[in-house]
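Before the break, one more example. Copy the sequence into your notebook; we will annotate it together after we see the structure.
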Amino acid sequence: MCTGIMTNTQNLKTALESGTVDFIKKPIDRIELLARIKSMLVLIKTLKELEKKDKIILEQEKLIIEEKLDRKNRKLISYTK
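Here is what the structure looks like once it is written out:
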């Protein structure tokens, strides 16, 4: 969010609570803007990496559960013989 009005602390709090990811006051400082863009790009990259890792963990957990079920099924089958 970029604004030249409503720049007090309460407005910042309201904007962030409403879903704004960042809040830049006008006039915009070029160095600050570039730093915030870089920060957001790092954040996006990190979130994507975490999503990939979460997906891998879920797949591993699924395999573990399937293996446990398979062992239990084999054990149950052995009891019926």
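The chain has one domain: 2-80. The first strand starts at residue 2 and ends at 3. Try to locate both features in your own notes.
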